[in-house]
Amino acid sequence: MKKIVMAVMIAATMAGCASSGNKQLSKETETSVQAKIHEGKTTKPEVKTFFGSPDNVSYTDGGNEIWKYSFAKVKIDGTTYIPFYGLFHNGTNGTKKELTILFKDDTVQKYTMSESAINTKSGWAD
């Protein structure tokens, strides 16, 4: 019995977390972004102050600039580390946040903020 308890404790300890992307976005919600960004008023330097440099910059056909920020945090399922069982049932789960801002000249014209769940399964039985 002690061996089983020890194996479960080790598996739970080894279940890791990983994050990637813009760390400032990790603390943001749709409400907090609404308080910071105002369409027609907020400027590029202000956005950079709030969120840092964008992860991706692109342009529309009309020459307007689009900035994209993203942040993802995932946790590996503990079942991944259980011998033999982990081959059949494993994966990750977490959340992803994305902020897309459209600038006209140097002012925010439109923006969207979204948060979604990330779930992956990669075991043989999943």
Structural class: alpha+beta
Supply Rg.
20 Å
What is the element string, with H for helices and E for strands?
A: HEHHEEHEE
Mean pLDDT equals 82
Low-confidence spans: pLDDT under 50, at least 5 residues?
A: 5-15
Q: How much helical structure, as a percent, in the residues?
A: 25-40%
Task: Tell the overall outline.
Answer: elongated
Strand content: 35-45%
**Largest sheet geometry:** 5 strands, antiparallel
Query: Helical region count?
Result: 4
Q: What separation lies between the terminal Cα atoms?
A: 29 Å
Number of strands: 5
Task: Please give a structural write-up.
The chain is an alpha+beta fold and 126 residues long. It contains 4 helices and 5 strands. Strands 1, 2, 3, 4 and 5 form a 5-stranded antiparallel sheet that branches. The longest helix is centred in the first third of the chain and has 13 residues. It is elongated and about 55 Å long. About 9% of the residues have low confidence.
How are the secondary structure elements laid out?
Elements: H1 2-14, E1 17-21, H2 30-36, H3 44-51, E2 56-59, E3 65-76, H4 85-88, E4 91-104, E5 107-121
Antiparallel strand pairs: 1-3, 2-3, 3-4, 4-5
